[in-house]
Amino acid sequence: MTDISITIVAFNDEIDVRNAVRSIMEHTNGKLSKIIYIVDNSTEANKLSSLAEEYEDVVYQRPGRNLGFGGGHNYVLSELDSLYHAIVNPDILLTEDSFSVLLSFLASSKVGMAVPRLLDEQGNLQAVYRRELTVFDMAVRMFFPSHFQKRQRYHTMQDMDYGKPFAVPFAQGSFLVIRTELFRKLGGFDDRYFMYMEDADLCKRVNKASSLWYCPDTAVIHKWERGSHKDKKLLRIHISSMFRYFKKWGWKLW
């Protein structure tokens, strides 16, 4: 059994994936046993399979079709043999030994899943920690991002002290570390969400079975492209996933 397993779901982003893997290898304590699964949903040809030749800790898998975000991470669920599991986006970069810190944080508590400080490339804290989702907050986020600033600050928990740990209802799924036993018990992601909101759904289920906490003791860089804000097709998928989420968990309007 390894200390930690890690999944990175690739989709036509070879350079990002390579950079993410390289940063994990460079900054993770060698005494920490790990396995990195690259699940390649890509439709374009790439050479990601060579990562398994470059690094003995990497396993490359290509499902042969695009399984989506949650489906991609779930692809290796039955193979996991670790104490902890990390869900990592391709656009993540480690600059320090974040996994050791997060595993220590989880081991010293009853917390089921943890999220670190997520910073942009300029070192600014990103607004990826959110209170319970409501229809109003999602509508503002999607269609009126320059309005209702006070409400948006509240929803994204900007009133919290980020120098201390605190419970989080929903943390964006760019970098999450969960107890593998809990992840397996929950059945991983609900892969009925092809893309978007599957992280909110997972956080909801984690908080019902255990808890999700913010850990202030380490930070990772997240490039965060916000694709659905730029692409109409992705926007439609995002809205469809929102309907699925609220249909499942209840239409909390405000």
Which helices and strands occur, and which strands form pairs?
Layout: E1 2-10, H1 14-27, E2 34-40, H2 51-54, E3 58-61, H3 68-74, E4 82-88, E5 92-94, H4 98-107, E6 113-119, E7 129-130, H5 135-143, H6 149-155, E8 166-167, E9 170-171, E10 175-179, H7 180-185, H8 198-209, E11 212-222, H9 232-249
Parallel strand pairs: 1-2, 1-4, 2-3, 6-11
Antiparallel strand pairs: 4-10, 5-11, 6-10, 7-9, 8-11
Keywords:
single chain; 254 residues; alpha/beta; Spore Coat Polysaccharide Biosynthesis Protein SpsA, Chain A; nine-stranded mixed β-sheet; two-stranded antiparallel sheet; 9 helices
Write a concise synopsis of the structure shown.
The protein has 254 residues and is an alpha/beta fold. 34% of the residues lie in helices and 23% in strands. α1 (14-27) links the parallel β1 (2-10) and β2.
Biggest sheet, open or closed, and with what strands and sense? Answer: 9 strands, mixed
Task: Specify the CATH class.
Answer: Alpha Beta
What is the CATH H-level superfamily? Spore Coat Polysaccharide Biosynthesis Protein SpsA, Chain A
Count of distinct strands: 11
Radius of gyration: 17 Å
What does this structure look like?
The chain has helices at 14-27, 51-54, 68-74, 98-107, 135-143, 149-155, 180-185, 198-209, 232-249; strands at 2-10, 34-40, 58-61, 82-88, 92-94, 113-119, 129-130, 166-167, 170-171, 175-179, 212-222. The chain is α/β, with parallel strands linked by helices and 254 residues long. The chain has one domain (2-128, 162-224): Spore Coat Polysaccharide Biosynthesis Protein SpsA, Chain A, CATH 3.90.550.10. 39% of the residues are buried.
